[in-house]
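anyone seen this seq b4? input:
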Amino acid sequence: MIRNKIKGFTLIEMSVVVAVVGVLLVFGQKYLSQAAKDAQGQVVKKRIERVVESVERHYMDNVLGSGADPMNMNTFIDSIVNLQGAGYLENCSSADVIDGKCINYRYLPFGSQTNGEEIKLTRHFTTEPYAKLEFTLANESDGETKATIVSAISLLPGFSISGDVVSIIVKRPGQLAALSSFVTTDGTTPMTGHWNYGNKNLTGVADLRSTTFTSSSDANVGGDLDVTGNSQIDGNSTITGSSTVTGNSNVTGDSTVAGNFIAESLIEVQGSGINFTGAGNINNAQYITGVEELIIADRSLTSGLRWTGSVEVLDSGGADVRKPNCNAGLRPAIEVWPKVVGGSTMILAIGRFETRYQDSLTDPTNKWTLNIDVSAVVDGQSGYQWVNEGVVGFEIWCEPQ
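predicted toks r here
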């Protein structure tokens, strides 16, 4: 008789398999748990970004649509409830949130509160108006969740944290945000709107020109010119004296203004534009809309606008940026924040980090030096050490002395 031998797993082999499966389950659960926390941090970041964008849109609509004073604190909205009521954010009920129909941006998805953690919106004024978003992490008991949320939102402009209270400062939108809804910069859309300065003055502009011009006659004004009614200038026009326009003016020819030009009413430029050859400054303009092309030799001469940019820092020596050439009574101002941490150095873990600026050692009058300091664990090294690499974002403007 031939007997078949049936070979199975030994007890030792079964024990090894069970141990391996247990290890995989432990690490898999930890990975899934961290992935869920990372996703939660990104949701918090996206909601804050949506609120900030809505606050900025409301501010710009107030300034450019309603003629509100851009330096008045009340031009910013004072609460998220009012932001929802004005239609800038969805107004979602608790029942609809539970049913997954919409998102209530008044709350963030963490903490022990029923609806989540509430975002509080307030408005303030120091040297200029700004809005502030605040929420607390005190009601979140899980330390890893707190750390993940802070990591996700720490690179947002205006971020700061004191204890468990997180603040996001929302400043007046810069010049690109102000112009983006009214004019294209690539020449694809012709200018169709009027220039409306809101009873402000346009004085001392260095170079403000267009490229599409037709003329029918020439006009030269060598003295002071006061226009109080509707005026039509069809030809090549040179104004070398002080000029005040209080009526509606249509300029369809080449115009050169070499003196002071005060516009108290509507100016419509239909030709190649106005060439200002005087002092070269735009002062006290509340807003400029419908411009087809704006050529300024030195952007720092447009006081009151904010220049937003970034610079790469490669080492502890930092990177220089140029200070604006401010008008009399104003001084250069700058704000910096981290955009990218690290560079060519392989970073495995990040502790604390900060950005800073100081007057340049080589040219303190005309330049700032920007630095970034990162406490990090570097590949191949043990413990934390300082790394001075990254990308620093900045806003530059002129403010009252």
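Residues 31-173 form one domain. The longest helix spans residues 11-65. kinda curious what u guys think
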